[in-house]
Write a structure and sequence with these properties.
Length: 148
């Protein structure tokens, strides 16, 4: 694998973006996925940095969720903003990570990621329901990448 941009096939990428769109269709929350080859930092620290770089901490209700993957390091993390973190159970993100990891161990990365997105989307829907016509998609739904 030469680049993070090649980690998912086009079909897998489309299914992940579709999972984001479906999840966001039911909530005012924002979900992003970022993949890169390598990070010199701990996965959670790097996820927090990417979260800020993608301006996910600037959403109105502070309800953004980032799925971060460093593919060559075999590390990933999920980070939520203050609004969502204040209302989900303490172990919520770890439960999603554990679920995703069962798929990742079987090399079903797109499936694990899509299911993790769906799980986060359910919590966002419960705590931050879609605001109808007033709801704006504050952040892009595509997968962001960097080739570090």
């Amino acid at each position: 694998m030469a680049k993070a941009t090649d980690f998912f096939t086009k079909e897998e990428e489309q299914s992940i973006v579709s999972a984001i769109k479906v999840a966001e269709n039911n909530t005012s929350g924002e979900i992003r996925v970022h993949i890169e080859n390598h990070s010199k930092k701990d996965a959670l620290d790097r996820a927090a940095e990417v979260f800020h770089n993608l301006k996910m901490d600037a959403t109105e209700l502070r309800n953004g969720v980032l799925f971060y993957i460093a593919v060559k390091d075999h590390h990933f993390s999920i980070i939520g903003d203050k609004g969502i973190n204040d209302v989900v159970p303490t172990n919520f993100w770890n439960e999603i990570k554990d679920h995703m990891q069962t798929h990742f161990k079987e090399k079903r990365f797109a499936t694990g990621l899509s299911e993790g997105i769906q799980m986060a989307g359910q919590a966002l829907k419960e705590h931050f329901p879609h605001a109808g016509d007033d709801d704006i998609n504050e952040l892009p739904d595509d997968i962001s990448t960097s080739n570090q």
